[in-house]
Amino acid sequence: MKNPSIKLKIRDTRKTYGPVVALESTSLEMREGEFLTLLGPSGSGKSTLLMAIAGLNSPDSGEIWIDGKLATYLPPFQRDIGMVFQNYALFPHMTIFDNIAFPLRMRRVAESEIRTRVERVLNTVQLGHVAGRLPRELSGGQQQRIALARCFVYEPSIILMDEPLGALDKKLRDALQLEIKALHEQLGITVLYVTHDQEEAMVMSDRICLMNNARIEQLGTPDELYFRPRTVFAADFLGESNLVAATVKQVSDGHATLAMADGAMIEAIADVPVRGGEQVTFMVRPESVRVLGEGERDDNMVSGTVRDTIVAGNVTKSYIELSDRTTMKVTQLTGTSQRLRKGEAAHLGWSRARTVTIRDAQGARA
């Protein structure tokens, strides 16, 4: 089977605004048909990188290659890219049909071909019945689907999406996440997506490029970033996590034995090089921690006192304070196990395979 070609290549691209570094020297590759998400908090550099790829700002140094052609300083209209924005950017005086047809008419496509392609893409986003309406007659979700259709219709090499669901309510946003994911798979399009919403990135992406302080923090699949974060920031930004200080006692074959402050010994994965005596952090997700019954054992075990238990709909969150004042979070499906009560003792256990060693707050960069 033929490997997908490299659709986008970013090489040592850097951008500053006066003394402010908006994007540190960054390198990144994106494959044909891939859904890659730039994820990070405000000011992390993700929008700066997207705008450089779109041709809406010029990097100070580095190169941007699209479809094997150097595009660093090409104007946007010569890059064969499409953009979908948060505010839809539909023409209010044009019908839906004409909004979608607009990029084809700008490219001087024959009217007969335009009608065929517009009808096809309207059916793809399940809005064939609104072709004659104006944008103001549609809901926010429908308008966003039309904005997507207008981008899909001229089949750009890469589609850039800048927080396209940010203005929608949660229920509609969740529904459109699945729609966009389905369209991506159905059409085989290449999508570079920008969001600060971790759940959105986890649901939709083939890979996530997590950004922080104007640079790439970690690049990998959703599973890799969630279960094998390489920095404290990555572990803390995606989902909830237990992050506990420890000292390396022994290292062998990609695993480490760690000592907590109270002397408890922890077995963990060590993806990054560590050595005996080094101060590290280990991470385990709250849903990977289970409450042990009498006589039960696990790779890692600690005991403490329940400080609080909160029922948050379908999950119950418990907070257990250990003897060294460390607080461990435990997440369980509501109703599937015995509820922990405040003030009682709790014995916790979790797998070595779900325990990750992190060197420090900076960690190893991807």
Walkthrough of the structure:
- The structure is a single chain.
- The chain contains eight helices and 20 strands.
- The strands form four sheets. Strands 6-7-8-3-9-10 form a six-stranded mixed sheet, sandwiched between helices. Strands 13-12-11-14-20 form a five-stranded antiparallel sheet. It has a five-stranded antiparallel sheet with strand order 15-19-16-17-18, with no helix packed on it.
- A hairpin with a 2-residue loop joins strand 4 (61-66) and strand 5.
- It has two domains: 6-232, 3-Layer(aba) Sandwich (Rossmann fold), CATH 3.40.50; 233-358, OB fold (Dihydrolipoamide Acetyltransferase, E2P) (Beta Barrel).
- It has 366 residues and is an alpha+beta fold.
- Helix 2 crosses helix 3 (111-124), helix 2 (96-106) runs parallel beside helix 4 and helix 3 (111-124) packs across helix 4.
Brief overview, please?
It is built from 8 helices and 20 strands. By secondary structure, it is α+β, with helices and mostly antiparallel strands.
Structural class: alpha+beta
Rounded to the nearest angstrom, the distance between the terminal CA atoms is 28 Å
* CATH architecture designation of the largest domain: 3-Layer(aba) Sandwich
In CATH, what is the class of the largest domain?
Alpha Beta
Set down the secondary structure blueprint:
Blueprint: E1 6-17, E2 20-31, E3 35-39, H1 46-54, E4 61-66, E5 69-70, E6 81-84, H2 96-106, H3 111-124, H4 140-152, E7 158-162, H5 170-187, E8 191-195, H6 198-204, E9 207-212, E10 215-220, H7 222-227, H8 232-237, E11 242-252, E12 255-259, E13 265-269, E14 279-284, E15 290-291, E16 300-312, E17 315-322, E18 327-333, E19 345-350, E20 356-358
Parallel strand pairs: 3-8, 3-9, 6-7, 7-8
Antiparallel strand pairs: 1-2, 1-4, 4-5, 9-10, 11-12, 11-14, 12-13, 14-20, 15-19, 16-17, 16-19, 17-18
Helix pairs in contact: 2-3, 2-4, 3-4
